[in-house]
Every structure is written in C-alpha cells, then in structure tokens.
What does this fold into?
Amino acid sequence: MSNVKMAYLLTCHKNPEQINMFIKQLLSYGDCDVYIHVDSKNKEIVKKIYSNERVHCYSKYDVRWGSVEIVLAGLYLMKKALESGIDYTHMYFGSGQDFLVKKGLYEHLEKTNKSVYIHINGKVKTRDRAAARYKIEWPRKLMIRNDFHIYRFVRIAFQMLHRIGIDIYPNKKILKNKVDFYDGHTWFIAKTEVIRYILDYVQKNPDYIKYWAKSLAADLMFFHTIIMNSPYKNDTAEELMYVNFGKTFGTMNHPSTVKVNDLKKIETGNWYCARKFELYESEASREAIIRCLEHTME
It folds into this structure.
C-alpha cells in the first residue's frame, strides 16, 4: 500500500467525455483528488465534468496559447489544493489530455523520493532564442496557434533579431531578486513542500509574475526557473510524462497524438503518464486510450 496522496491539477479546455475518462481513471487508481481549471472561453463544459466529492472544478482564466494565463491557472489550482487542508504528499500539474499509461506511479515516487520530476532543457543564456520569450513584451495578437500563420513567422523573426541584440518590444521590467532562467517541458510532479515553496516565492516576489505578464510561452520557463533557483535544484529527476514532439516545421512545437503503436515504447520506458491523447481524432488514438484504461484500472 502506497503512502502517496496525490492532488491532480489539470488545465482543460475541451472534450469533457475524455476528461471524465481521465478523472475516473485517476480516482480508481490511487488515493487522490482532482482539481480542474476549465478555460473560461469554454466554461459551459464545467457542468459536463464528472461530479464527485473528490473532483473540484473551476473556470477563472481565459487561457490563450502562448500566454501567461496557463501559469496563472496552475497557481490558482495549487492554492485551491493547499487551501483544502488535505495532507497531499505530491501534486501533479498536467492537462485534460493526459492519461496514466501503466501502474506503479505512486510506488515509483516513494522509491525514488525526489522532490520534483520535471524535464529541464538547461540554463538559458541572454541571447539564446529561448531568452526572447521573456526579454520581449509580445503583442497579444501574435499569440495564435497556427504553425503556418504569418504571425508564427513574425515570432521567429523577433527571436532571430533577439539573438543579434535587437528587441522590437523590449521587456523593461527588472526583477528585484535576480535569477538564472531555465526552460523545459510544461508539466511536472512535485512534493507538496515544493508547491508551497513556489506559492511562497510568488507571494514574496510579486514582480516575478508581473515580469512574465507579456512573455511568450511562460509555462515553459516560469516554474522551472523558480525550482532551479531553489533549495530543490539538486533534488530533481526526469519527468515521468511521455511526450513525443513532432519533427517537421509544422509539428515540432506540439506533442504528437499518442496512438496505439506508441504504447510498446511507453511500456518499456520510465513513463507512467503521457500526453497528448485525442479521443475523436482516429481509431488508433481512441484505442490508445482504451488500452491505457485497461492497463491501470481494476
């Protein structure tokens, strides 16, 4: 019997049927509660979310692609979970397009006993292309998730100009407490003490949130930077989430849909969850979900 008690913090925006499948998987899998933030643009799906005393659903932020709102939604769910007064050992920050892919997650967390499971690409240098995400105040109109839209090419141009020292809309905000910036993948699992540290940090450093207000893809750096400048820096492990990013210009910025032929690779790796799943995309993607449910639910 595992001693892990998990709070799953999920940002969602579509497909309530798929979200409900994930919720039921989580509730049947181990000792946990589920906290959900539904994009306010689609708040009508809140009433379609599975009703259970262990499921807490909110809709506060208009989460736009590339904007800081996904970070704000994550912080909001963290606060809600802590305010519950329940003694969670860990929190999982993920999305409604995840699923558990095999048993053993809680046992792995207990055995390895790391503070954070997260993918870190590394420290960001001042003129790295990634640094443009926070060195520039990005116009809202450029936040369009379309790989062949003219605005993507504008974003690329801004990043290239940044590399040679030219920032069209420079972020002139200065952090009171300087940090080294890190980037990586959005989602992570952390001990509750780390979540408390994150919330305490942003409360004591309100300029930190303001610094990211007009950034690009803050979710790839916001939490990573706090963690890697914290006492937990040397107590991290690689993420437990399988994500397969595309290899072409049109797919490289987004996770590929998990399909049934991905499951053999997942089963042999050190992954206990995966994203992204699409219930309605194809028979192969739907079959992948069914297989995951069969592998994890009694």
